[in-house]
Fold each of these.
Amino acid sequence: MERAKLFFEDVKVGATVTPLVKRPSTVQLFRFSAITWNSHRIHYDKPYAQSEGYPDVLVQSHLHGSFLAQAVMDWAGPSARLVGFRWQNRAIACPGDVLTCSGTVVKTEMGDGCGYVECELEERNQRNELCAPGWARVALALRIERSK
Amino acid sequence: MAVSFETVYQQIRALVGQTRTIPIGQLSRRDLERFAVAVDDPNPLFFDDAFAREHGYPGAIAPPLYLSSVLGWEAGPPERSLRSDGTPDNDAMAVPIRGLRVMGGGQELEFHRPVTAGMDVVMEFSVSNAELKHGRTGPLLVVQLKKRFLTADGTPIVTCRENFIAR
């Protein structure tokens, strides 16, 4: 995967965060529950999940968030620093869903020795339903070193 | 199960403002990498020390949501004491919501410094708010948690505000 360096000067309001497509599977949900010590049965026990009214086991709240964080870090590149991040869970997702994480730059501002970029993010399923809106604030290197 | 929302609400309200300090201990390299593997995020910052150093880090870092996504840092309660939905109700991060359907609502995170393997981490956990609301499908509780992750000597690492919904 290309991990190009993104400089602050190259990012304008309205620029797009490169979309990332995720296809969660039941195995992925199981392993995510294991590493996060999440024993909530809605994530691995389909009959139980159905007893709560869901069609299948559910993608974890934090996995939705992790997908959005992956999208923004892939786009910003390894020299960027994620300084702030948030997401909200709005709609459920199940194994087999195709989740596309994308975003738009909504603000840029000069900082002290770096520049800050804020992005509105969203994760949508294959029916274009919004599963998780999000937001990130990223510090980017300046192309030109400026003296203070 | 008949649950009095009012009772649960009052029990959670009673916790607001109390902080529990939970020692996490030294972060395991393998756990940080497993989290990235489970997310299917192959970013070399999470696996490759030399690559991470080239980009200004002291070594490979944790994925940003690692600390705030782990739901238990202890060995955990025995299975027989779990709630019927599989969640614990007597570990350090438990909130008294037995009998309700629970769902994560999202987080707001501030990252103060990179998280690397071997760091000795402490979490301060508290319930910061609880609201009883009436939605389209009946009553629901919106509970806000605050999780502050610090180094053992008190330097902030990550601050997390998290919402969950109980119905």
Amino acid sequence: MPTLSRMKNFFRNIFAKRRNDGELDDEVHSYVDLLAEEKMRAGMNPEQARRAARIELGGVEQVKEQVREARAGAWLDTVIQDIRYGLRILRKSPGFTTVAVLILALGIGANTAIFSMINGLMLHTLPVRDPGRLVELLHHYPGEPEPGFNGFSWDAYQITRDNNRVFSDLIVGSMNFFTVRADKLQPQAVFGGNVGGTFFQALGLRAAAGRLIGPEDVHMGYHAPVAVVSWSFWKSRFDLDPGIVGKKIIVDDAPVTIIGVAQRGFYGLSEQAQQDIWLPISLGPSPSWGFALLGRLKPGVSIEQARAEMAVLFQRVVDAPDAGPFVRGMQLRIEPAGDGLSTPLRETLHTPLIVLMAMVALLLLLACANLAGLLLARAASRQHEMAVRVCLGARRGRLIRQTLTESWLLSMTGSALGISLAYFGTRGLIRIFASGREIAGLPVHFESLSNPDWRVLLFTGAIALAAAMLFGAVPATSAFRPIPAQALQQAARIGESKSQRLFGKSLVVSQVALSVVLLTSALLFVGYLSHLRSLNPGFRRDHLLLVTLDTAHSGYNAAQFARQSEQLVARLEAIPGVKSAALSTMSPMQGPGASAFAFAEGHSDYQHNVSINDVAPHYFETYDTPLLAGRYFSADDQGKPLVAIMNQVAARDCFGNENPIGKHLTLSHITLTKGEITYEVVGVVGDAKYNDIQQPAPPTVYGDFVQEEFVGSQLAVRTSIAPDAVAGVVRETESAVLKTVPIVRIMTMNEQIDASIVPERLAATLSAWFGALGALLAAIGLYGLLAYTVTQRTHEIGVRMALGATRRDVMRMVLRDALWTVSAGFALGTPLAFWAKSAIASLIRDLPAKSPVSVVFGGAVMIALCLVAAYIPAHRAMRLDPMIALRHE
Amino acid sequence: MTPDQTNLLQGTLDMMILKSLALDQMHGLGISRRIEQLTKGTFQVKPGSLFPSLHRMEEEGWLVSSWGESENNRRAKFYRLTKAGRRQLDSETQRWGRISLAIARALEAS
């Protein structure tokens, strides 16, 4: 038969069902009429004839049903019938349906939210040609933590480009913030990059408008400055105006012409940091070791071959006569980069997300066990209905399909709600992210986090189906059981079989076990977070207000700025509630800052990697960092040889046990191209943490920023009252004194520390939610089981009471039952919880996983919660009137 | 294996219905009676198998139906062969001839 007419029939049968049925009805009835007429002609009276005709037909409805089954699309018909019936059943018990859908929505929503974060942060490949052949180059020092740093000198780029035989392209770019303005566009910081001439072409990217940067643009440089912007930049700033090509904008105070828009969906080489503007590499800053390199492997060349050849080639970079001292010992690594450049963001979030994913999977499992328990009780109360349907001729297969359809309906409704919950959940997660500092200077690519794509929807659909299978299996198998004749008697109380009761209990036991695991993990994370928050960072973290200034366009030179800032500090210190104030180039816990190689007097054959911070006098007093030896900076240092203060680790690293005071220290700057400078050490202060609160304080050398002619942009204000209370006055004072220096942000030190531990806060917040949710579900599960058992045993309880059992006995009986169940769950959950703890501890460093406190506490919470849940049905059993209970049928 | 071979009875009924409609259009009861007559009472077609067959063949495009008046002026649904139906009848008849011959030979062989 032609497919077209088959399809036509299919759709007619589905959509014109009523008309079809009416016509079929007419046809069958006319058949009966004709048959009756035939019989009347044979001599029957009309009544007999009609009766005989009907008997011969064998039932109008049965014939119609047989025709319907023969029609195209009959299977869909029964599916629709099942769905309708299922919906009706679910509507008939709105309480059960609401609870079930909510439980599922929470379970599925949590999974969807975490998965969409994993999807957004880790599963994307770059939208470029053949991303599988891309590799990134990383330099590292032997013995340094993996994976290294993708930053190279221009010389290294040229040597690699001209001499390698393994890459068909070597792509070069750097990442920078630009200040962009145009008419109708306020000055704003835009993250972007400078790229080499073959960048776009080698990645195989198309232009959404205009053209992309090519070798000729790099060659022209400042003679014809150009820029390419991202599609989302075009949309958000220019509203997709086609006139963008040829538009003049101002980038870092220089006019630039936009020549095109990059392919939609391309946000640079890192999937986590969104780049919106690209300029030729010949424009803008030229960092000495800031060029990221990406290679495209030649066809047939494996990554091992590339590693072997490049290791030899890179030795030439290291051995180059003009290579700086810090290049000594540097080695090259090559890693696949199809999913973008490795960024610290991915590294720091990877493990917590994996752990959280495991937690939500457990949560969903728990929700399924919970629902299975609910459905088990329901299946028992629906035995009568099932028996009637079997007697009316329903096949077992059909009944199973019906119950599975109901589970599937629940699961679909739950996941629809879950997806919207996940959407709001992800918003909340993004808020936690946004409260974090830029990780290694990279803004997080929020767009990929918040939009659920096909992968997320597929994932949700799959887990919804799996969940329906899991919890739907229980009522479906109950349809398999032979149905006892007594099930047909409406009034008969149908007892549960022993195995059924055991199964119901084991469901609750597994819920308790799972929630012990969840609670333990949650307590681990929460405990760790509070441990981090109580760590001593080497300065007083409370009562400290931090003000970040934008000094880039102040118009002051260093000397003017020093004078102005002195005045500012004086006026700030006059504010009631302010104890002292100081400026510096870095504030602690702000993120990684400048670093340098230090060579100590008398030990100049050793180089030490140290952090650099240039600070104003009063800095250490303001932060409450103790002076251990020597003196602080003073106003008398101005105009004299450069002086420096070291922290304890740096002093020990550089000078061993010698007294460093009065000795000299030479710094070779990497990031600040200042060359080598020698300082006299005048003081040693206590260690303070700068980047990572979990790591020991880095060796740090402090310079006097007035002496070094730096402009400090970090203002710290030590208060004696709550720091937020003076924020307004501080803001007013600052804008009165430094009129041309806007404030970027004001936050307390505690907030700044919180911003540095986003993954830990994320893990603690989410796991606490999941743990609480799991415990609540388990408690509800136990309550449901006990309430159901008490109802089932009402008669039995009546008999016991009539025979002399006291109310206390009855209550004890129910509570004992509950306690056994919970204890079994705890016994099962404890080893699992210990195992989960050590698994998490192996993934996340210095978690306090040894102590059993979290397991004990998790178990105690669970038992307490369950006893509360058990008390309600136990109380009800106790209050039963034996006379009424005995009559209960 | 085609469905026709597995479900010989179904195929046979279809063929008989097509055959009964070869000369003229007919309503359901008429088809039943005609088949009884053609097979000398060997086949008695019950409505429970007749109607599903008719509707399926209509969907296949071998039959078309229309409402009309019976010989006694009663409303009835009449079925009539289409070109495709006639082709189907021919091929069914040939196939049936081959099968019955083959079976007859098989049964004759000792």
